[in-house]
Design brief:
By secondary structure, the chain is mainly α. The chain has a domain of 129 residues. 48% of the residues lie in helices and 0% in strands. The protein contains 12 helices and no strands. It is flat and about 65 Å long. The N and C termini lie far apart (72 Å).
Length: 341
């Protein structure tokens, strides 16, 4: 019986019965943090990329979120108690003091890689940098980035705050956090679209007459000045062999965008954000046509009285030679090709 008693521990693998809880190919279980905004497990993938992949909400933003979710205006069931309020304030102040001390102690090292150090050394902007100077600057930038990675992380303070909240309070904070993330993503998308529109307008405004591409001015009498290094023709005409379009496309697009109402510009910004490049190209082409290739009203240039010229219109509509006098469609009705699968 003694051997049997010794062999008794053999059935110990019985706890393995808990394994069926996980799929066979599920891999090892990973514990996830349940503190929203404190790590990469919260928020959309695009939002995490905008935050450098870290998924951390700034301290000031988190403070406003907690204040809105648990402050005096919050329902009584989730409103923070005076003790909780004092604890949260102490945690926030401790983080701010730690962060301030870190940056004060490393101010010189963190600023060494900035471009301002070049002008402080007496080097003018645009002056070629010597190889050893470039290497030193790259090293300073790398050292500064490595040092910033060691700065105090607010995620630790968020975890402390999370630990003193009840389940109901955590749900309230998480709800406000989702609103914050949604607003942040929407604001970033809107700003991106507005920048794209502004860049299109700037390119059109900077374009030279006759469709010649903008160019940085060179020294007086430089060959090809104003034509990307190509020699101009007689009396400053465009280079031979390069036809000049009657109007710059970006200029027409800029004028078309300027004529849009604020509501239409907002719709355009949303459209740019959620569509494919093919759809955007089609829309921009329609906007150029809406502004016209030769001037207001979409009339083509021509001779006096000629179709599309001064006093004339492009023939079309019912019957031969009838004018086509339909107003331009609103932006939301512009048809564009469907995205490719």
């Amino acid at each position: 019986m003694v051997p049997a008693a010794v062999a008794q521990p053999a059935p110990e693998p019985a706890p393995a019965q808990s394994a069926p809880e996980a799929p066979t190919l599920g891999g090892p279980r990973v514990e996830t943090r349940d503190v929203p905004g404190a790590g990469g497990t919260f928020g959309t993938e695009s939002a995490r990329r905008r935050r450098g992949g870290e998924g951390e909400v700034p301290a000031a933003a988190f403070g406003r979120i907690v204040q809105k979710a648990l402050g005096e205006q919050a329902p009584e069931a989730v409103r923070a108690t005076p003790e909780q309020t004092e604890q949260i304030r102490a945690i926030m102040q401790a983080f701010q003091a730690e962060q301030r001390a870190f940056f004060e102690a490393n101010r010189g090292a963190l600023g060494a890689g900035r471009r301002g150090q070049r002008s402080a050394a007496g080097q003018a902007d645009g002056e070629p940098m010597m190889a050893e100077d470039a290497q030193a600057e790259r090293a300073a930038i790398a050292a500064g980035a490595e040092l910033r990675a060691k700065a105090p992380k607010f995620a630790d303070s968020q975890t402390k705050i999370w630990s003193i909240l009840s389940a109901e309070q955590r749900a309230a904070v998480e709800s406000e956090m989702k609103v914050y993330e949604s607003d942040r993503a929407e604001r970033a998308s809107r700003e991106y679209a507005q920048r794209q529109i502004a860049q299109l307008g700037q390119r059109g405004a900077a374009a030279q007459p006759g469709g010649a591409p903008p160019r940085r001015p060179g020294p007086p009498g430089a060959p090809g000045e104003g034509f990307r290094g190509r020699r101009p023709g007689p009396d400053g005409a465009p280079p031979e062999g390069r036809p000049t379009p009657p109007g710059n496309p970006d200029e027409r697009l800029r004028k078309a965008i300027e004529q849009l109402t604020p509501e239409e510009r907002g719709a355009l910004a949303e459209f740019i954000e959620r569509t494919t490049p093919e759809q955007r190209r089609a829309l921009f082409q329609r906007l150029r046509e809406r502004n016209g290739e030769g001037g207001p009203g979409g009339r083509r240039p021509g001779g006096p009285g000629a179709p599309g010229g001064p006093g004339g219109r492009r023939p079309g509509g019912p019957g031969p030679g009838a004018p086509e006098d339909r107003p331009a469609p609103p932006i939301e009705e512009i048809e564009v090709p469907a995205p490719r699968p």
